[in-house]
C-alpha cells in the first residue's frame, strides 16, 4: 500500500505534526523515553526524530562541570539558551523541509519560562506541543542511573567515575534550585511519576498523541529478557511450500523436545514465572508443547497471510504470478499478497503484541519467520527496507535483553539440522539444508 508522509496504515495522521517536549531533572530517563518513542513511531511508519539539546551544547562546551549549569553563571545560561535555540531551529527546518511528523525536544526544559518560549516558538507554526515530564524521587534509582549511563557519557569521557558521579549530583542540585514541575493546565502534558507508578494526563488532543500516551503508560525499566523462536521445521518447510497449517517434520519434533534445555541454556529458569506465547497454528503449538510454562495462543502471532499463494512453493509463485513475484521483491515491505497481507499490514496486526511485550517482564514467543522479523525489527531498530530480508533461521532461540540505550542480542542455535527458508531477493531457489553446527552455538551482539 502506498503511503504518504505521516500515514499510519488504517489511521490517518496526515495533517498532524507534534513536538514532544521532554521535561525533567537530569538522570530521570528522558533520553531513554525519547529514544523509545522514536523507535515505536518509526516502526509504525511515522517519521520521528529526536533533537537532543545536550548534543548541541556539547559542540561548544564538551565537558562542562556542574557550575556551568548554575543559573548564576550568566555565560553558562547564555550558551545553554543558544543550544536550545539551535535545536529548535533545526527542528522547525526538519518539519518544513523534510515533512517530519513527530519531533522530540530532549532537554530538561525545567522552568515555566523555557516551556512558554517553546510553546510559543513552535506553536505559531501549527505544530502541536505535548510535554512529557518524568519525575522521580527514588534516590537509589537516580544514583544507579548516574552510575549506569552518566559516568560513561561524553560529558565525562576519560574522567574518574567517582568524581564524575559527584559532579553530576551537583549538576542535578543546580537544576533543582530552579526546577518547576508542570502546572500549566492549558498545556497538553503527560506526567510520569516514579517510572509510571502514577501517570497524570492533561488535554490530550488527537489519535497520535493518545497512542504516545498509551505507549508511555506501558513502559517499565525492570530488568527482563524476551526470547524468540520460530517453530521447529515443518512438513511445509521441507516441501518448500509457504503458509499452510502443517505439522512439524521429524526434525521439527526433535527441536521441540530439545527446546526446554536450549531455553535453560538461554537463561530461562522455572522460577522466572515466564509465559510462552504461540500463534494459533499447529507448528508453533507443537514446538512449545514440552516447555513447562504457562502458554497463551495469540491469533495476532499467526504467520503473514500469503492469500492466493498459500500452499505454493516460491517456484510455483514465480510461474503462476510472475508480476507479483517481481513486485514483491521490488518492495517486499509494502507488497500485499492477493487476498493476503503485506509486512506493513503485519506490523499493524502486531502493534498490540508489542504493547503487551513492553508491559510484560520475561516472555518467550514461539512464532513464524515474518512475525519474528517484525518483532525483531522493533526491538533492534531495523529499517523497513531491510527487515523483510533478515535471516531468522529455524532451530535457533534469539534472546533480546533491553538495556539503557539499546538491546543486547544473543542467539542459541540447536544442534538439529533444518532447511533454510531464507530466499534471497529475485531468487526462487528451493529450500535446502542449512549448515548445521556440531554443537549448540552462541553468538552475542548489541545494537545501540
Ligand atoms: P539528562 O538530563 O542528563 O540527559 P535523562 O533524564 O535524559 O538525563 P537518561 O540518560 O535517559 O536520563 O537516563 C537513563 C537512565 O534512566 C536509565 O538507566 C534508565 O533505566 C532510567 N530511567 C528510564 N526511565 C526512567 C524513569 N521514568 N524515571 C527514572 N529513571 C528512568
Ligand atoms: O543536564 C543534562 C542535559 O541534557 C545537558 O546535557 C544539556 O545541556 C541540558 O540538559 C539541556 O537542558 P537545558 O536546556 O534545560 O539546559
UniProtKB/TrEMBL annotation:
GO CC annotations on file: cytosol
Biological process according to GO: fructose 2,6-bisphosphate metabolic process; fructose metabolic process
Major enzyme class: hydrolase
All residue ranges annotated as the 6-phosphofructo-2-kinase domain in the record: 8-223
InterPro entries: 6Pfruct_kin, 6Phosfructo_kin, His_Pase_superF_clade-1, His_PPase_superfam, P-loop_NTPase, PG/BPGM_mutase_AS
GO-annotated molecular function: 6-phosphofructo-2-kinase activity; ATP binding; fructose-2,6-bisphosphate 2-phosphatase activity
Keyword Nucleotide-binding recorded: yes
Annotated region described as Disordered, given as residue ranges: 427-448
EC number: 3.1.3.46
Gene3D superfamilies in alphabetical order: P-loop containing nucleotide triphosphate hydrolases, Phosphoglycerate mutase-like
Keywords: ATP-binding, Hydrolase, Nucleotide-binding
Protein family per UniProt: In the C-terminal section; belongs to the phosphoglycerate mutase family.
Protein name as it appears in the record: fructose-2,6-bisphosphate 2-phosphatase
Amino acid at each position: 500500500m502506498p503511503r504518504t508522509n505521516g500515514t499510519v496504515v488504517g489511521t490517518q495522521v496526515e495533517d498532524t505534526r507534534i513536538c514532544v517536549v521532554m521535561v525533567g531533572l537530569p538522570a530521570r530517563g528522558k533520553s531513554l523515553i525519547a529514544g523509545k518513542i522514536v523507535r515505536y513511531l518509526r516502526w509504525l511508519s511515522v517519521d520521528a526524530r529526536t533533537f537532543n539539546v545536550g548534543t548541541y551544547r556539547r559542540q561548544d562546551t564538551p565537558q562542562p562541570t556542574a557550575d556551568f549549569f548554575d543559573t548564576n553563571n550568566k555565560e553558562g545560561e547564555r550558551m545553554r539558551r543558544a543550544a536550545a535555540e539551535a535545536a529548535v531551529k533545526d527542528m522547525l527546518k526538519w518539519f518544513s523541509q523534510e515533512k517530519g511528523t513527530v519531533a522530540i525536544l530532549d532537554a530538561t526544559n525545567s522552568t515555566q519560562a523555557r516551556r512558554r518560549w517553546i510553546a510559543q516558538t513552535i506553536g505559531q507554526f501549527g505544530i502541536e506541543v505535548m510535554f512529557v515530564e518524568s519525575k522521580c524521587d527514588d534516590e537509589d534509582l537516580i544514583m544507579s542511573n548516574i552510575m549506569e549511563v552518566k559516568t560513561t557519557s561524553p560529558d565525562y569521557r576519560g574522567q574518574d567515575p567517582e568524581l564524575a558521579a559527584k559532579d553530576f549530583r551537583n549538576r542535578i542540585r543546580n537544576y533543582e534550585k530552579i526546577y518547576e514541575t508542570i502546572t500549566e493546565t492549558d498545556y497538553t502534558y503527560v506526567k510520569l511519576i516514579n517510572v509510571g507508578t502514577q501517570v497524570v494526563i492533561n488535554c490530550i488532543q488527537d489519535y497520535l498523541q493518545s497512542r504516545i500516551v498509551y505507549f508511555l503508560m506501558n513502559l517499565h525499566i525492570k530488568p527482563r529478557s524476551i526470547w524468540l523462536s520460530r517453530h521447529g521445521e515443518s512438513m511445509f518447510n521441507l516441501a518448500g511450500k509457504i503458509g499452510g497449517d502443517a505439522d512439524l517434520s521429524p526434525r521439527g519434533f526433535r527441536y521441540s523436545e530439545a527446546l526446554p534445555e536450549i531455553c535453560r541454556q538461554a537463561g530461562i529458569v522455572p522460577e522466572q514465572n515466564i509465559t510462552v506465547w504461540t500463534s494459533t497454528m499447529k507448528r508453533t503449538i507443537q514446538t512449545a508443547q514440552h516447555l513447562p510454562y504457562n502458554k497463551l495462543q495469540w491469533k495476532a502471532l499467526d504467520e503473514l497471510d500469503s492469500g492466493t499463494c498459500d500452499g505454493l512453493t516460491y517456484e510455483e509463485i514465480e510461474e503462476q504470478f510472475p508480476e507479483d513475484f517481481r513486485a514483491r521483491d521490488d518492495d517486499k515491505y509494502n507488497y500485499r499478497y492477493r487476498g493476503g497481507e503485506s509486512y506493513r499490514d503485519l506490523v499493524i496486526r502486531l502493534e498490540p503484541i508489542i504493547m503487551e511485550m513492553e508491559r510484560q517482564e520475561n516472555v518467550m514467543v514461539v512464532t513464524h519467520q515474518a512475525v519474528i522479523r517484525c518483532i525483531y525489527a522493533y526491538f533492534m531498530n531495523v529499517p523497513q527496507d531491510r527487515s523483510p530480508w533478515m535471516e531468522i533461521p529455524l532451530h535457533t532461540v534469539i534472546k533480546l535483553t533491553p538495556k539503557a540505550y539499546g538491546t543486547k542480542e544473543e542467539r542459541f542455535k540447536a544442534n538439529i539440522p533444518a532447511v533454510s527458508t531464507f530466499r534471497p531477493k529475485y531468487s526462487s531457489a528451493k529450500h535446502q539444508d542449512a549448515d548445521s553446527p556440531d554443537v549448540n552455538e552462541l553468538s552475542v551482539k548489541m545494537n545501540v
